[in-house]
C-alpha cells in the first residue's frame, strides 16, 4: 500500500510541474468569429477573437486565426506577432509554420542572421519540436515504465529478465529526465519570452535616450531579442547580432 501511495505521489508531482489550468473554450464566440472571417468581415471577427482572449483562453488555433485576420487587414507586425505565439504553442503545426514564414517574406528589413552555437541550436531544435504538455506526458510515461522495469529487475527470478529490466529501466529513466527538463525549457520559452516584434518604424539608438546616436532604422515585423530595460527603453539584439536601444512602445513581446 505504501508503495502504491508513493508511486501515485511521484507521478502526480511530476505532472503538476507542467500543469497549467486553461479555462474552457468559449466555443460559441469562436464559431461566430470564424463565420465572420469566412465572410471577410475581419473587423467584426477580430473583436470576437479578442473577447475570447480577454476571457483568459488561449490556443494555437486562436492565435493563428487572429494572425490571419491581421494579415488580411494589412497589419504585418501584428500578424507575425500572433503567428509567433501560435507557433510557440504548437511548434509541430505545418500550417502555422508556413504562414509565419510567408508573412516574414514581406518584412522590409533583411539581415544576415548570426548562427547560434551548434549545441544551443541542437538543444533549441529538440526542445521546441514539441510543446510542454507533450514533453510532460512523455516524461510521465517513461517514468512509469522505468518503475515497471526496475520492479522486474528486483523481483524477477529469471536472470535474462532482470538484466533486461535493469538496462531498459536505465535508458527509460534518462529519457524521462531528459523529457522533464525539455518540457520545463519549452514552457519557459513560451511563458518567459525575451523576443519581441517591432510594431512600427523605429529608431535603434546607442543609449536609452533620444540623444543617443541613431544606429539603425527598423521597420515593422522585425523580430528582436530583449536584453535589458531602462526608463521606457529596451536594450535589444538584432538578428545580425548588433545591439542597441529602442522605445518600449515600439515593440511588443511575443
- The secondary-structure class comes to alpha+beta
- And the CATH topology of the largest domain? Serine Threonine Protein Phosphatase 5, Tetratricopeptide repeat
Q: Which term fits the overall shape? A: globular
Q: What proportion of the residues form beta strands (DSSP E)? A: 5-15%
Q: Give start-end ranges of low-pLDDT stretches.
A: 1-6, 16-22
Would you report the number of β strands? 7
Largest sheet: 5 strands, antiparallel
| Main CATH class of the largest domain | Mainly Alpha
Task: Determine Rg (CA atoms, Å).
Answer: 23 Å
Q: Would you identify the CATH architecture of the largest domain?
A: Alpha Horseshoe
The CATH homologous superfamily of the largest domain is named Tetratricopeptide repeat domain
Distance between the termini: 47 Å
pLDDT averaged residue by residue: 86
Helix-strand string: HHHHHHHHHEEEEEEE
Overall helicity: 55-70%
